[in-house]
Amino acid sequence: MTVLKTSMRNFFAHKGRMALSAIAVLLSVAFVCGTLVFTDTMNTTFDKLFAATASDVTVLPKTAKADGSTPQNGLPESLPASVLAQTAKAQGVKSVEGAVSSMNVTVVNSANKNMGSSTGAPTIAGNWTKNDLRSMEITSGHAPRGPTETMVDADTADKHHLKLGDSLRTISQTGDFTARIVGIATFKVTNPGAAVVYFDTATAQRELLGATGRFTQLGVTAASGVTDAQLKQNVAQTLASTGTYKIQTAKENADENRQGVGQFMNVIKYAMLGFAGIAFLVGIFLIINTFSMLVAQRTREIGLMRAVGSSRGQVNRSVLVEATLLGIVGSILGVGAGVGIAVGLMKLMSAAGMDLSTRDLTVKWTTPVLGLLLGVIVTILAAYLPARRAGKVSPMAALRDAGTPADGKAGWVRGLIGLVLTGAGAAALFAAATAKKATDGSLVLGAGVVLSLIGFVIIGPLLANGVVRVISVVLLRAFGPVGRLAERNALRNPRRTGATGAALMIGLALVACLSVVGSSMVASATSELDKSVGADFIVQGNQRIVPQAEKAMEQAPDLVHVTRYKDLDATLTSPDGQKDTDGITAADPSYAQDLRRATTAGELSAAYGTNAMSVGSKYAKKHGVHVGDTISVAFKGGSTAKLKVAAITDDDVAIDHGARYTSIATMQKYLPADKVPPNEIMFAKAKDGQEKQAYAALKKAMEPYPQYQVRDQTDYKQELKDQIGQLLNMVYGLLALAIIVAVLGVVNTLALSVVERTREIGLMRAIGMSRRQLRRMIRMESVVIALFGALLGLGLGMGWGATAQQLLALEGLKVLEIPWGTIIAVFVGSAFVGLFAALIPAFRAGRMNVLNAIATE
């Protein structure tokens, strides 16, 4: 009880000094809880949607996929209408409906603007059925009744200002067709952002499936008293003689759909939790510094406690109880803030086009419990070392103005361990950089990153002495005595300076590493494009290129040739008998001009001859393949071909790494016309001197198909740069949390340092130092600490990035580019971070009463 009272008294006596540490705990816990609440809410939204749309029993083609993806020919898997009639005969069936649905469509308005979601959610076209009434209701107009009528969901209508009577053009694999909006349907549950259009059944079958009398799935409703499981069994028995189908209960169907979404959600969740973990790691340094300085400031108090009979354990527990209180307060506030972050993310996603309703806000009991446990445990672990040092304070310390006991031997051991770990990390990074396989090297790289990071954290105090002196010579000596005082203050406690700098080092190391990797990827891809791509124009989109768009492109003027490029599902059997299911690429012979691939044997142009193909050098080496050998290629949906290897391409490239090529003509011999896939991408070459005219003409020809982009090489490079830049900006935004916590650490360290040096500051003011000089001294000290952390972080991060690039070089990304502009900007920005962090501590120091400061013990 005495320990608790003492801890409570000390906690509230230093509540101002604890505040920033509590904020660090709050931010870290808030990010964890916010991530969990956000992802749980998204899962709830999809669960409600899947539960509302699932029939009692669903019958699908055996090969149908939960994500709605289509086979290689671009048409959805479907069932014959005869299966509907057969299913209706099953015992326990109340009714059966045939549904048609396709996600391989694009819907545009009269202004040729894409009505699809900009967030990646699908555009879904299908027929309107009674089953849709489970999740939607018609709130305006009526359901479509003929080939010229359509109905759209209310969210899409609101977003794109659609109304009854407007025309929509639907672009599918089988062609284009236009219909007038006669109805608007509103979701009864939250729509995560999909755009949905409905047609009558006959139109949907003809335009989406290319055939009448077929359905993509059947929705079966159970008769009264029949369970879903019994109905599934009855339907399976009835259909056993007509073929093999995927038959699912409502729960099984919802679970399968949920599993597909869950994989995507897990990527988001674990990525965000990873950044929260980084913030926790940075927060540990802040908490260690806070308690170390509080213990140092209370040395005489702790010594007196020991003198009047307190044991080491009681002193230790007293500090740990304070840490527990800090963790509890910060975590409770963090849980509340986490719910706020989740709501903010939902609003942000809704503004971007993915509608998430706060009605579905999901806060599981595990979320606050996990947040509290993480916050408290991390805080206690961070405070353990300061608490242990507090327990070592002897009663004699009460009789002198002494700090916590120093342990020279421990310092040497710490330095030795740090050097060993740093050396091991450097060796691992070197091994990763010289690895022969990217998969093997990535594991070694991970070990090198962890070991070098821990090593730098441990030897931070040793590095502080040298690095701070160098920075001071460059920046501080010009400010005379004030600059020298700032340098000495930063060097006074190297362990504290090292810990404060390490917090900033972690975030900036990751920034530097990712900047190097991103810049190297862009530079490598740009170099590869310049060297390898001979085509003037590249056409592609989020969907495969429909035949009508292909035809429009081929008819564009001022082009020498247009090249088709198709990815085919196929199983290859090499001469050694090994099977490979990675498929093969079919292209026109002009592709050999559009992509200049070096060969290690043979000529690539020969691979586009009859019954010929090429393989990559890695495949050839692995299976002992040589030019002239025959490979068996079993085309999915077609027959098996015996193709002669006419060329072996060099795999030391980034574009089409490992691709195997054959000609369109060869593919057509072994694959039926209805199984031939649309083009993944198309290339075009302009007539000499007609590049500008051809570019304009091609853009105009593809204008009716806004789902595809026409790019020349300059456009392609810029888009690549923009895509990587957007990804990096998102990562930097998440890393900003760790950097904010690091800044709080600098603020807290300076604030406590000012309190620790109250008497010293009073004496300096008494002998003539002005308030302005005092504030400048503290700001300079802060800048030096920030630049120390930045220098270590940027140096370490560039080392990680350069090593990662060497692994990417094994996949063809050979150019190492250091983004010096970004590195210099971050380094200079760190100085401003230091200035900002020192504002409040410097202001408070300048306001100190001189006489009161001198009288302080």
UniProtKB/TrEMBL annotation:
Classification via InterPro entries: ABC3_permease_C, MacB_PCD, Macrolide_Exporter_MacB
Record key words, sorted: Cell membrane, Membrane, Transmembrane, Transmembrane helix
Protein's cellular compartments: Cell membrane
Main location: membrane
TM regions (residue ranges): 270-296, 319-345, 365-387, 416-435, 447-476, 497-517, 730-755, 776-798, 818-840
The keyword Membrane is assigned to this record: yes
Residues in ABC3 transporter permease C-terminal domain copies: 275-395, 734-849
Membrane is among the record's keywords: yes
Domain MacB-like periplasmic core: residue ranges: 19-237, 500-698
Membrane topology listed for this record: Multi-pass membrane protein
Assigned protein family: Belongs to the ABC-4 integral membrane protein family.
Descriptive protein name: ABC transporter permease
Organism, as annotated: Streptomyces hokutonensis
